Amino acid sequence: MRGLTVLVHGATGGVGSIATQMAVRDGATVIATVRSESQIGAARVLGAHHVLLADAQDLTEQVRAIAPKGVNRIAEVDLSAHIEVDAEIIAIGGAIASYYSSTDRPTIPYWTLGFADATLRLLGSDDFAPAVKADAAARLTQALVDGSLHIPVTERLPLENIAQAHDLFERGHAGRIVLHIP
User: Fold this and answer.
1) From CA 111, how far away is CA 93, in angstroms rounded?
2) pLDDT score of 182
């Protein structure tokens, strides 16, 4: 990814935080979006070069000011919520990788994406080929070993406290919650 510009929506979330760190590790310039000003520092700690508020009225203009020719890759946290912005900021030949959509049938701006020769990848982790999963596991493990990937675990609970873990998650607990089998 060296030399590419990557936009990571939801950069401080579970998937977004890993996407941010791995893109930085691979040499990309990372533009992160976050939901609140309180998350800006966390996105910077993850290595994001630029951090923008996801609900900014001028998000497209802010991204274009950073990447005038558009972004090469987009890690998408909610395709239906962001596809209009994504279509406006994707570079020619760029790719959008989406792992969630809040609606089952998002409206796709076909011609905007078509004229950008964009690729839309809809990801479901259960559907990857075994070799792809093994490669991803090896790359993530290496990043953990060399210290370029950090996953903050802030709560460790025994499996029998799974209801408590769920409650923490629902209340917006910061960091990851790990359940263990004693």
Assistant:
1) 14
2) 80
Q: What backbone torsions phi and psi does residue 155 show, to the nearest 5 degrees? A: -145, 130
Quick one: which H or E segment has residue 119? strand 119-122
Show the domain range for 179: 152-182
Statement to judge: residues 98 and 156 lie in one domain: no
User: How does DSSP classify residue 47?
Assistant: T
Helix (H, G, I), strand (E, B) or coil at 149: coil
pLDDT at residue 126, rounded to an integer: 73
In sequence order, the β-bridge partners of residue 51 are 32
Say if CB 117 and CB 95 are below 8 A apart. Answer: no
Predicted pLDDT at 173 = 77
- The answer to whether residue 147 is domain-embedded is no
| Beta bridge mates, 16 | none
